[in-house]
Amino acid sequence: GRAALITGASQGLGLSIARAYVQAGASVMLCARDADLLGRARDEVAALAGSGQRVAAMRADVSAPEEVAALVSAALEALGGLQVLVNNAGVYGPMGSIDEVDWSEWTRAMDININGSVLPLRAVLPHFKQQGYGKIVQLSGGGATNPLPRITAYAASKAAIVRLAESVALEVKEHRIDVNSIAPGALNTRMMDQLLA
Fold first, then answer.
1. What's the predicted TM-score (pTM) here?
2. Which single residue of 52, 72, 80, 181 could bond 138 by disulfide (Cβ 3.0 to 4.6 Å)?
3. What is the pLDDT of residue 188?
4. Which of 21, 92, 133, 154 is catalytic?
5. How far apart, in whole angstroms, are the C-alpha atoms of residue 110 and residue 175?
6. Partners of 136 in the beta sheet?
7. In the chain, which stretches have pLDDT less than 70?
8. pLDDT given for residue 145 in this prediction
9. What percent of the chain is predicted at pLDDT more than 70?
10. Pairwise CA distance, residues 75 & 80, whole Å
């Protein structure tokens, strides 16, 4: 009976999370950058929905403040409220020696992985505080627990995201808002294919 906004939900883990939420009785707003993949994901998840459940989707870049603001507004309207945010969107970024990788790709990965989590979190918090309830699930990764040579943007951004989640959790606990970070381990997804290549 709850409503969740799930970023990076067009494929891989995000799509699996969306399926599981709908199968557990939630309504969901899916978000991703690729409109075609997102449309297919929405149709797949909507086929699992029961009576009274809503499945919506909106293309958005989670590192763009104006797009995130529009996304959260659309989620609140389409789902009739919002109780859960799953910050799943993320990228590995460039792979290689820190002094040789393309700097614009490195900073773009940081932008997606850090701002792409901070911006949705900031956008939902006023609503969560007002209702005195919310759940924020932040996906982290191996970069938060171990050095990852040649994948430095990913490692640094994921370490930052874990500390962000820990810090915000303490800021908002009095509002009955839980913030948790989850590192699911290696998954057989497109990102793993990229890493293996």
1. 0.92
2. 181
3. 58
4. 154
5. 29
6. 85, 179
7. 142-143, 185-197
8. 78
9. 92
10. 8
Question: How far apart are the C-alpha atoms of 94 and 187, rounded to whole Å?
Answer: 19
Q: In this predicted model, what pLDDT tens digit does every residue of 109-167 receive, in sequence order?
A: 999 999 999 999 999 999 999 999 999 999 987 667 788 899 999 999 999 999 999 99
Helix 103-110 / helix 152-172 crossing angle, nearest 10 deg: 20
- Structure tokens, 176: 């009955």
* % helix, strand, coil for the chain, step of 5: 50, 15, 30
List strand residue ranges (DSSP E) for the chain, in order. Answer: 3-7, 27-32, 55-59, 84-87, 134-139, 177-182
Known catalytic membership, residue 92: no
Structure tokens of 97?
Answer: 């020696």
| Residue 164, both tokens | 């962000």
Name the token pair of 167: 């810090």
* Assigned token pair, 50: 């029961």
Q: Which residues contact 24 (CB under 8 A, 6 or more apart)?
A: none
Per-residue exposure over 134-157, b if at least 16 CB sit within 10 Å of its own CB, e if not: bbbbbbbbbbbeeebeebbbbbbb
Q: How is residue 71 written in tokens?
A: 């996304």
Q: Which residues contact 128 (CB under 8 A, 6 or more apart)?
A: 82, 83, 134, 136, 172, 175, 177
